[in-house]
Amino acid sequence: MTGPELLRHVEMMQRERNISRETVFSGIEAALQLAAQKYFGADKSTAAEEISISIDRSTGNITALHGGKPIDPSLLGRIAAQSAKQLLIQKFREAECQAVFDEYAAKKGDLVKGTIQRFEHGTATVSLGKSEAILPRSEQITGETYHVGEQVKAVITDVKKNGHRVRIVLSRTHPDFVRQLFIREIPEIADRTIEIKAVAREAGYRTKVAVSSIDMKVDCVGACVGVRGSRIKNVIDELGGERIDIVRWNDALQVLIPNALQPAQIEEVFLYPRLGRAIVLVQEDQLSLAIGRRGQNVRLASKLVGWDIEIMTHDELNQGIERAEGWFSQLPHITAEVLEAFIEEGFLSYVDLTFFDSPELAEITGLTEEQAQDIIDYAEEAAEAMGDEASRGREQEGRGAARSSAAASKASALFKDNVPTTSGVEAKPTFESLWRDEPATPPEMVVPETPPEATPTQEDTTPIENLEGVMAEEPPHEEENLPEDETLSGQEGHGQATVTETSAPGAPSEPLHADKRPEEEESTTENP
Questions:
Q1: CA separation for the pair 123, 132 (Å, rounded)
Q2: Taking 60 as the threshold, does the pLDDT of residue 512 lie above it?
Q3: Average model confidence (pLDDT) for the chain?
């Protein structure tokens, strides 16, 4: 191979595989050095003195010497040439791997666009041109589906070497993905007129973005939203309809925390820097709005500002302070001043005291380090005891719920197929049966047997209008037994039933009409 041909191949390697010229030249020199050693049988220690290989970088001419004499490449043989080829391939692969690693390591956190090539156990392989990356299932937005050949956008979160291969990990759930989409869609962010201060995200559900403007004439929130939401709409569409809250940044936490908890109305904010905690007071009707669905709003606001935010009402805060005073009054070496110092620092439980060591607690309370250590030891034991008690209470509640569920299941299985029925008694007519075309048949009624002497005759069933005349004129009738069937007479089609009651001998019986209204009976009694 002549010098110009070698230079042409070196330039092609540099262009196609992104390998530097010096790497290619040094690889060729190492391969020729190995081939000469194989042919002459030289050791590695003496090879550098006996064998000399060099390539002119400008002309591409190769100079090979053995003991000061030039080497004829045709004499090296096939085995030496094969060894040189393997070494050359290895060098080029290492150089190519390093070039890919350097390229994408510098792009970590940047937005890239690739094509879905295949799926393996939920992990998508994405082609980025000359390289391939993976999009794990954990880094995919919940509810999204991808197809082979589909274009997808993601950010590079990790770049690692795995042997001679480079492992590039992509993500669509990382907060930087939203940040890069804002940079691409909003020119004011791209030219740094507007700065993204912080991003808090729960992928697939909700995102909070805090922005600020270095130009007082530019409204940072309005610029991000755009005219009628035109700018933010493109970001939301890329995220699959994920809700985005744009928060106006402020260096003062007293202002930033209410902004982060919007749309809830905040009354007051108390900051406790030692604990990194902020207690936010709201009205009762704003409590659920400030907390959000499953605590999502307050959780994202805490991530955005970097503080632990607790939402309370005025009554809850007063109850928490009273409860904390009752607990802290049991601490050793406690005084009114120490108790007040604890409340002013925002300590509301034994667990809060365990976050500090004895020197810090001694600085807060003014006690000695030994006394502070006694307080910390007592607080740790009390917190552990309270945690065990709470866990036992939850276990008991769980066992009670399990027993109730098991008993309900057993009862359901026992009575599922064994529902008791009363033979000889028909079901009562339903409300719908009153409006049917066919008349409802009165239910069969069972009347207890009456003694023969107490059963009145049919003639005694006199209407109530002639009751006085019968009582005045007719003497008592003799008792006579009637069949049981005659004690019940019904008129089909009218839904009426008349039942005769047993009366004393010689006294007339009054029929009971089921369809007679109470007011009719009263009027009949008053005016016979």
A1: 13
A2: no
A3: 77
Q: Are strands 243-248 and 496-499 parallel, antiparallel or unpaired?
A: unpaired
pTM of the entire predicted model: 0.65
Longest CA pairwise span in the chain (Å): 165
Cα gap 281→265, rounded to integer Å: 10
The pLDDT of residue 17 is 77
C-alpha torsion angle, residues 380, 382, 383, 384 (rounded to 10): 80
Those residues with Cβ within 8 angstroms of residue 221's Cβ, 6 or more apart along the chain or in another chain: 211, 246, 248
Rounded Cα gap, residues 350 and 383, in angstroms: 6
Do the Cβ atoms of 240 and 211 come closer than 8 Å?
no
- Give the residue from 224, 201, 231 showing the smallest Cα distance to 141: 201
Closest to 176 in 3D by CA, of 207, 197, 155, 204 = 155
| 157-169 average pLDDT score | 89
48: three-class secondary structure by DSSP: helix
Confirm if 55 and 27 have CB atoms less than 8 A apart.
no
User: 């744009």: which residue's tokens?
Assistant: 246
Amino acid in the structure at residue 371: Q
Query: Residue 397's pLDDT band (boundaries 50, 70, 90)?
Result: confident
| Burial of 509 (C-beta count, 10 Å sphere; 0-12/13-18/19+) | middle
Give the C-alpha separation, 331 to 493, whole Å.
Answer: 86
pLDDT over 90 at 437, yes or no: no
Cβ atoms of residues 56 and 106 within 8 Å: no
**pLDDT digits over 115-132, tens only?**
999 998 889 999 998 889
Structure tokens given for 84? 């040189």
Give the residue from 194, 290, 302, 289 showing the smallest Cα distance to 248.
194
Q: What is the mean pLDDT of residues 417-444?
A: 47
In whole angstroms, what is the distance from residue 9 CA to residue 24 CA?
9
Which of 438 and 502 is assigned the larger pLDDT? 438
Q: Which of 25-39, 235-249, 337-351 has the lowest mean pLDDT?
A: 25-39
Average pLDDT over residues 251-275: 93
Share of the chain above pLDDT 90, in %: 41
What strand order describes the sheet that includes 62-66?
Answer: 51-55, 62-66, 69-70
68 vs 54: CA distance, rounded Å: 13
What's the start-to-end Cα distance of the chain, in Å? 141
Peptide bond connecting 483 to the previous residue in cis, omega within 30 degrees of 0: no
The Cα–Cα gap between 165 and 286 comes to 55
The DSSP annotation for 16-29 comes to: HH---HHHHHHHHH
135 near 151, Cβ under 8 Å?
no
Is the sign of the CA dihedral 15, 19, 20, 25 positive or negative?
Answer: negative
pLDDT per residue over 95-110, tens digit each? 888 888 988 999 999 9
